[in-house]
Amino acid sequence: MAGPMRPKRAAGDIVGGDDADAGHLAVLNASPNAILAVDSSGMITYANPRVAATFGYEASEILGQPIEILIPERVHERHRTHRGTYLGQHRARPMGIGLDLSGRRSDGTEFPVEISLAPVETPDGLRVYATVVDITARKAAEDAQAESEHRFRAVVEASPNPIVGMDAGGRISYANPQVLPTFGWTPEELVGQQIERLIPERFTERHIGHRTEFMDAPHARPMGIGLDLWARRRDGTEFPVEISLSPVKTKDAPLVFARVVDITQRKALEDQLLQSQKMESIGRLAGGIAHDFNNMLSAVSGYAELLLEDLDRHDVDQAETRANVMAIQAAAERATVLTGQLLAFARRQVVSPKVIELNESVTRLEPMLRRLIGERIQFELVPGEVVRRIRCDPSQLDQILVNLVVNARDAIKGTGRIILSTGEAVFDEPYAMEHFDVAPGAYAMVAVSDTGAGMDHETRAHVFEPFFTTKELGQGTGLGLATIYGIVKQANGHIWLYSEPGAGTTFKIYFPLVEQPEQLEPQVSSSRGDVGSGRALVVEDEDMVRGLTVRMLRRSGYEVVEARDGNEALEALAAGAAFDVLVTDVVMPGIDGTALAERVRAERPRVAIILLSGYTAETLELEALLARGAAFVAKPFSGHQLLDAVREARANTDDPTRTRSAADTRDA
Length: 668
Description:
By secondary structure, the protein is of the alpha+beta class. The chain folds into five domains: 11-139, Beta-Lactamase; 159-262, 2-Layer Sandwich (Beta-Lactamase), CATH 3.30.450.20; 267-345, Helix Hairpins, CATH 1.10.287; 354-514, 2-Layer Sandwich (Heat Shock Protein 90); 535-665, Response regulator (Rossmann fold, 3-Layer(aba) Sandwich). The protein has 23 helices and 24 strands. The strands form four sheets. Strands 13, 14, 15, 16, 17, 18 and 19 form a seven-stranded mixed sheet that branches. Strands 1, 2, 3, 4, 5 and 6 form a six-stranded antiparallel sheet that branches. Strand 4 (101-104) and strand 5 (110-122) form a beta hairpin. The relative contact order is 0.05.
C-alpha cells in the first residue's frame, strides 16, 4: 500500500477538522453518496458517513490512508499517474470520461462507480473532494437492456425474412441482412430511402395514402387483409408477399417495422391446389350435365322413335302422336332451362334487365313465398324503410328469392322461422381494398335468413359450385345456388354467406343502386299466326338449326335463300338478288356473322339484320351493330322470338329514329 501509515484521528477530527466549516460539513455528511477528500499526496483527509455503506469501511478506518485503498489493485499505477496529471491541471470535472471505473470494498469485491472531482484550496494546501456514486444497480439495468437489445438485434438479423424499419415519413431507418437476397439491395443502400422503393410503381400512390392513414393510428396487424400484395426487386421484377406491421415507440420518434415474407412458392402450391379443385368442380359439372342431358336426350330419342313408328302406320292415332310431340317439346324445354342455369352460373345468360323497386318486387312476391313455405314455418318480411331502385332482370330476382326461400325451408326440420329483409349498405374504398371482388359504392341489400341446421366449413366452401348438393338423391340438381351466384355477378352484385352448424344460415345479396329509373322500350309481342312478306337470307353452318330457321320463316310467308357460311352468303349477295332480311349465325368458320353483317349494312343499309348465337351479345361484342338497329336472338329460340326479332329489325330499318343506343342494347 503506497505512502506511510498515519495514526488514526478521533471521530470528531474526522468529521470536523479544519477542512470545512460547520455548514459545509453538514451538507457533506448528509449526502446520499460517498464523499472523500484527498490531499496532494493522495492521502484521505475526510470521509462522510456514506463511505461505510458504499465501501464497507468506517470513516475512522480510512482517514490518513492512501486513496488507492478504495481502488482495485490492477489500476493502482495507472491511478497514481492520472492523479499526478490532475494535480498539475486541477479543475472540477467527472473522473475517467469514457472509462468504466470500479471501486473496491473492504472485502475485496469490486463494483462500478461514477466519480466527480472538485479541487478546493485550504490553509493546509490543496484538497480534492471526490463524490463516489455506486452505479451497480444502474449498470445491471444497462447491461440487461444492452443484452436485450443484443438479443433483439440478433433475432432480427437472423430472421429468414426481410425486416424493414421506417419512420412516420416512410423513410427506411433499418434493414436486416435478408433484404439483400430478397430485394437485391444491401441494408446500407436501403437505409435513408423511401419505403416505396420496394413497392411496384403502380401501387405507389395508393400505398402512400394507406401509410399515412396507418401512421395516424398505428397498431400491430397484417397488411392488406384479403388482398394480393406485391413487392419489387432491384431489377424491377415483382413477387407476391405477405407483410406484418409492428409499431415501436422510441425516444426519438415512433417507428414501424415491416416483416416481409416472399410467398412465391406458396402461391405456386396454392395455384396447383386451386387448379386441382377446379378440375374436381369441372368433373362434377360434367357429370351433372351428362346425367341431366342424358335423361332429356333419352326422352327426345324415345319419343321421336315412337313418332316415326306412328307415321309409318296407316291408322295413326292423332292423340298419341300429339302426346309424343309434346313430350319431345317438354324435354327440349327442360334442356333449355338447364342451359339457362349453366349460363347464369357462368354469367353468360341472356338477360332483360330493368330498373325495379326492390321493396316493391319483394312485397309482390310475398304471397307466393308464403305458399311455398307452408304453415309449419313462420315467415317474416322486413322491408327497409327507404325504397331503392336496382337494375336487374325481374324474373331473375324472383328466381333468386324463390331458390333461397325454398333452400331455407328445406334446411328447417320441424318448426322454425325464415326472415326476408331488405336494406342498404355502402362499401367504402378501404373495405373494397380488403375485398378484392367488391367495387366501392352504395348497394341495396336483400337477405334471407333461417333457423335451420346451418352449414359446416366444407359445405360453405363448395356451396356455389354447380351440381354440388347436400340434398338426397333426386331431391335437387345442385344448380340453385350456382345459378344465383351467376345472376348476382352478372348484375355486378355481390353475395355473402354466413352459416355455422346449428346456428342457421343467412344469404346477403348486394345490388348496385340506381339513382334514376331507366326508360325501357315497350315489348311488342307477336303470335305465331302472323304472316310476313319479303325475301330473307339465312346463314347458318349448323344444318339442323338452319333448316329449322328456314321452315319458321317460310311458314310465316317469307321467301328464303339458304347459305351454309359467310362465303356462300356473299356469293348470293354478289349475284344481285334483293333481300329484305339477313338472319345470320354469329360464330361461323371463315367469315363470321359480325363481319358479314357489317358488310351488308355498309352495302345494303335497308336490309334488316338478325343475329343468332348461343353466346350472349356482351360476349360477342355486338354493341355497334345493335346500336344501328340489328336485333339479337339467343339460341335456342322459338318461332315467336325469331319473328318478333325480324319485325323489330325491319321496323328499325324503316324508321332510323327508332335505332337504340348501345347502352339500351347491351343486355339484349
